[in-house]
Write a structure and sequence with these properties.
Order of helices and strands: EHEEHEHEEEHEHEHEEHH
Number of helices: 8
Strand content: 25-35%
Helix content: 25-40%
Radius of gyration: 20 Å
Number of strands: 11
Oligomer: single chain
Length: 208
């Protein structure tokens, strides 16, 4: 089974869309469509083994070699900077990384800007480029309430439709970078399974 491509799929709607794309490209695996709680599925006929993992863990599986390929959001790649190859923008899961704050918020240049975020590296890099003094508050849950409770001035987070921001009296103040799902590869796998991986990439490109 060592010649099979091990592919880490992110759990949830994005992973389902990615699998549909891979299936259309000729990499179907009927077992993955059966109901149940299994996490690993393989199809020797198409030479693929899929497994479901938490979206934020995909890059770890790929970097460490447990997966040859994986699909990770650009937000994860920018924040955690895994040592992987980025092969293809799949154009799925499109959203944006943005700065958001209360509608009436105005910056006070004389003091550090307090930023609540799940993405401290992205936030720090963005504001370093602006030369702005900041105080980053790392949170893991819903961060929209941070400005409402006075914990932060603004937030840096993923924005898809903006509905959640609107419902919490926030608005986008600046867009940092567009986000979408990317196909990534392990360095060693890309070298030793180059032909199989490039064929998969080419077939995906045909679908896109």
């Amino acid at each position: 089974m060592t010649d099979m491509l091990n592919i880490a799929l992110p759990k949830g709607r994005l992973g389902e869309k990615v699998y549909a794309l891979l299936k259309a490209a000729g990499y179907e695996c009927p077992a993955i469509e059966e109901p149940g709680r299994k996490l690993i599925f393989e199809n020797p006929e198409t030479g693929v083994r899929y497994f479901w993992v938490k979206p934020s863990d995909v890059a770890i599986y790929v970097q460490r070699g447990a997966a040859d390929l994986g699909i990770a959001g650009r937000d994860i790649l920018l924040e955690y900077r895994p040592d992987v190859y980025e092969l293809l923008d799949l154009g799925l899961g499109k959203c944006r990384m943005a700065v958001a704050g209360p509608r009436d918020f105005r910056e006070k240049p004389g003091r550090p800007l307090r930023i609540a975020t799940k993405f401290p590296h992205i936030a720090a890099k963005y504001y370093a480029g602006l030369g702005r003094d900041i105080d980053i508050i790392k949170l893991n849950g819903s961060i929209e309430i941070a400005p409402m409770l006075g914990l932060s001035d603004v937030i840096v987070d993923i924005v898809e439709t903006g509905k959640t921001l609107k419902e919490n009296d926030l608005e986008v103040k600046a867009e940092i970078v567009p986000i979408s799902a990317r196909l990534i590869a392990n360095h060693a796998a890309y070298q030793f399974q180059y032909d199989a991986i490039r064929t998969l990439v080419r077939k995906l490109e045909e679908q896109l």
